[in-house]
Specification:
This protein is α/β, with parallel strands linked by helices and about 400 residues long. Helix content is about 35%, strand content about 20%. The protein has two domains: about 5-195, Rossmann fold, CATH 3.40.50; about 195-410, Rossmann fold. It has helices at about 20-30, 50-55, 75-85, 95-105, 110-120, 130-135, 135-150, 175-195, 225-235, 260-270, 315-320, 340-350, 390-410, and strands at about 5-10, 35-40, 90-95, 125, 150-155, 155-160, 165-170, 200-205, 210, 215, 240-245, 255-260, 280, 290, 310-315, 330-335, 355-360, 375, 375-380, 385, 390. The chain starts with 5 loop residues before the first strand and ends with a helix.
Length: about 400
């Protein structure tokens, strides 16, 4: 018999806490193993015994053991932290402004905040608070930070509050919360497919020197590749990020190799790709490089009206690496084109021996370089799927989901 899904319900101190009783009961009836973790403030709205009766599991309210006669010391505390490892999904509902601020700043002064920092499971945050508190810039900034961490924010509903104010801030219905948990469970299955996999990702632009001052490059910011590295690492993959020059911070848990030129990126890729399970070429390396590099700055007065550069093609990194593809390896490419040239992306997909290619028309609004959104088409042997305008982080999440599907199919 398959193990029951392990669901952690984190209840914080809002009046809507009573609504989680129905959710806990329903999840338990649907054969989920539900564990409720309450903040001290939450216990003033709903008695822990209520959740214990509904879930048939002990309710956790403290980092320290509640039953010192049965268990004591660090071992008991660590038994509670073990929930972070066993959880398939963690839902925080209602999530108050105070607790959201705590999560956004990495504070861990109670059991629930500690669990969230310690888990790799999907974390869902269902906000519920006074409309003015929800709309306050501090709350909105903190919610954005949580989104960047990869937490799923379940948006509040609009209506009349217990405080008699009307606006956005009501806790979503039990059905909405249940469906969010179900979706997260499906994602969790995909997450596990990447756990332990060695993934190589290229990101950012390259620079081809003309002289000590000038170079050829492009507008790539590296945001797409860095988002992929972050998502893959969060899912337990061992990620190596080969990065051209960017201003981005290295995602947590990612090993970063800095390069400048396309040749350097090629050399690093060829060195590390043979040992990796998945290779994702999200970088935008320069296609051409000067044949000769001036040792001194080229001055205007030294030229005769027009400066002419002779360029030669740079190595096609993903195409050359994929020639040596092993049966278990997955190669994903990117194709940034103009004028909706999806046919060119399909040609590259076939010619370069790839398992999939991500196409985007950089002339479309919201797509392309140096912005936080993208509009792409996923092309594989089995489908050509145009995705809507999404944040690059959401695009990265979908790409990782697609790669997980390939892995699960190969098992």
């Amino acid at each position: 018999m398959a193990a029951k899904p392990q669901i952690v319900l984190g209840v914080t101190g809002g009046i809507a806490a009573y609504k989680i009783c129905e959710l806990a009961s329903r999840l338990t009836q649907e054969n989920h193993d539900v564990h409720v973790v309450m903040t001290e403030s939450a216990t003033r709205f709903v008695a822990p015994l209520t959740f214990q009766a509904l879930t048939q599991n002990a309710v956790h309210t403290s980092l320290w053991p509640e039953n010192s006669a049965a268990e004591s010391g660090v071992a008991a505390a660590m038994a509670h932290i073990d929930l972070a490892t066993r959880a398939d999904v963690i839902l925080i509902a209602p999530a108050t402004a105070d607790f959201i601020a705590k999560l956004a700043h990495g504070l861990a002064d109670d059991l629930l905040s500690t669990l969230v920092l310690a888990t790799r499971a999907p974390v869902l945050v269902a906000t519920a608070m006074n409309p003015a508190m929800y709309e306050h810039p501090a709350t909105q900034r903190n919610l954005q930070i949580l989104r960047e961490f990869g937490y799923q924010i379940i948006e509040p509903e609009s209506g009349r509050m217990a405080c008699e104010h009307v606006g956005v801030g009501r806790l979503p219905t039990t059905e909405v919360l249940r469906n969010a948990i179900q979706n997260a469970q499906n994602i969790s299955l995909s997450n596990s497919a990447l756990a332990g996999k060695k993934i190589l990702i290229t990101a950012g632009p390259t620079r081809e020197n003309i002289d000590p001052v000038r170079f050829i490059s492009n507008r790539s910011s590296g945001k797409m590749g860095y988002a992929l590295a972050e998502i893959a690492a969060n899912r337990g993959a061992e990620v190596t990020l080969i990065s051209g020059p960017t201003r981005l911070s290295t995602p947590r848990g990612v090993s970063r190799i800095d390069v400048v030129s396309t040749q350097e990126m090629f050399d690093a890729t060829m060195q590390h790709a043979p040992d990796c399970d998945i290779i994702i070429a999200a970088a935008a390396p320069a296609d051409f490089a000067p044949i000769e590099i001036s040792a001194q700055k080229i001055k205007k007065q030294d030229t005769v009206g027009v400066l002419q550069l002779t360029l030669s093609p740079t190595p096609d990194i993903i195409a050359i690496a994929a020639r040596e593809k092993k049966p278990h390896q997955i190669f994903i490419g990117f194709a940034a084109e103009t004028n909706s040239e999806i046919a060119e992306a399909q040609r590259k997909f076939a010619a370069k021996n790839l398992d999939a290619i991500v196409f985007n028309d950089i002339t479309q609004d919201g797509a392309g370089f140096d912005i936080d959104t993208n509009r792409v088409t996923w092309i594989s042997p089995t489908e050509t799927a145009a995705w809507p305008l999404l944040s690059k982080r959401e695009v990265a999440t979908r790409i990782c989901d697609k790669i997980a599907e390939v892995i699960l199919h190969l098992r």
